[in-house]
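[Meeting: bench + compute handoff]

Bench side (C.D.) handed over the final construct sequence. Compute side (W.E.) agreed to return the predicted structure before the next meeting so the bench team could plan truncations. Sequence as handed over:
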Amino acid sequence: MKASLKNTPPGDTPASTTTLSELSTVDRYYLAWHTFQQQHGHEPQGPELSQYLAERNVLDRKGKHIKPRALTRYYLEFRIYSTWAEHRAHTTNPRLDQVARDLTQRGVTAQYNKPIRASDLNKYLDTFQRRYNTLQTRSGAAPIRAAR
């Protein structure tokens, strides 16, 4: 994966000294997905996100655009994370039943339109908390550990 801050377009430069290398590959995809939505007002299609990442020098191991299908496989996780992070901003331990309710209200479902239940969210918690802390540190905010 190629990623360089010197090739980052103006306005996309991190606010702190956290380096891009501290972000996981999926974190980079999430940031691009999230930023694209903020800039364009809608969720990117796979080819749009692939192009958006390429413009920021985030490419596959062969130096080519990341395949749209490889990106869209993360969209459900990104939708869930965004909702969870909204709750996390207000409490260190978001109530998963409330997160699941908000996902339902937003029309976010699992495969085959199956509703996402609170118990379905448990598998994401460690990843979400790590991502949240990494992104908070990156933005200059102090990371807060969730109590277990």
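W.E. noted at the follow-up: Residues 75-130 form one domain. C.D. will use this when planning the next construct.
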